[in-house]
Amino acid sequence: MRHTPEPIVDVADAIPDFAPLARKTVRLHPRRGECANDASKMGGEFIWPVSEPWPRCEEHDCPYLTVLQLSRSDTPELGFPKHADLFQLLWCPNDHANAEPFYAPASRAFWRRRADIQNALASRPAVGVHDENYVPVPCVLHPERVTEFPDAGVISERLPHLWEKIESCARLQEAITTIKEYQFSDASLLYQYWLSVADGTKVGGHPPWIQDPEIRTCQCGHEMEYLLTIASAEFNGGTWGRWLAQEERHVWGGAYEIRNAVQCAPELMLGDMGKLNYFVCRKCDGWPMTAVFQCS
């Protein structure tokens, strides 16, 4: 298990107007290692029906690559269709200039019923044409539930009255004076890095934004629901003080190889330390999915 430290101050207690905005997210905490082909995992071998053709990218003439597999028992918060208990995310490990998200991997999602796969493929196809930054090192997952609040960009853009309360909150200002790991110049930065959206690869809760928030609308006209995030890193120089697990605090000041095995376990690099936020429409047949790519 991995455990995220408690926040230095409870935002909803300090500013009661934030209480209705609290959501649970599942931090997946990928760490390098192998596990069963039907287990929740990143990269490596996924369970796949022998009778089903492996998806290929027409633009790059290469097979899609395994990225994330989640079971209902590990992450029920994902919201599975009634018939399914297994989610699989695959992508083409190349930049795509002619399809959204531009200059990022093109993804496909599969919802399955594990019991229906009686005859599984022995191994996935060999990796074809690819960008090494888009090939995840096999990882096991350590799901953890934490409470989070909307991204700072969402608050400042859509709820400016709450942004003003953050900047003027005496308890947040006082908390800044007690922090030794990082020097925050004001309460808004404390909120952004330590008190809002959980860093790293996660399921549900609030979407994290590196640039301006982006709303995704399905072809049916409905606003799409945030599903999950694939992140280049679990924390960075500004966020580690809150989002680096308690059991691994020592890695921040350690050798690069030791820190990187925790901070960037799957060894993905989406642009410049970027993220892919995935959205789904559960009102349409097949639950169409789209992604938003953002980086520094």
Give a written overview of the molecule.
The chain has about 300 residues and is of the alpha+beta class. It contains seven helices and 14 strands. It has helices at about 10-15, 150-160, 160-170, 170-175, 185-195, 240-245, 255-265, and strands spanning about 25, 30, 40, 55, 60-65, 65-70, 85-90, 105-110, 140, 145-150, 200-205, 225-230, 275-280, 290-295. The relative contact order is 0.19.
What's a concise summary of this model?
Helices cover 16% and strands 21% of the residues.
List the helices and strands and how they pair.
Blueprint: H1 11-14, E1 23-27, E2 31-32, E3 41-42, E4 56-57, E5 62-63, E6 65-71, E7 86-92, E8 106-112, E9 139-140, E10 144-148, H2 152-158, H3 160-168, H4 170-176, H5 187-195, E11 202-203, E12 225-231, H6 240-243, H7 256-263, E13 275-280, E14 289-294
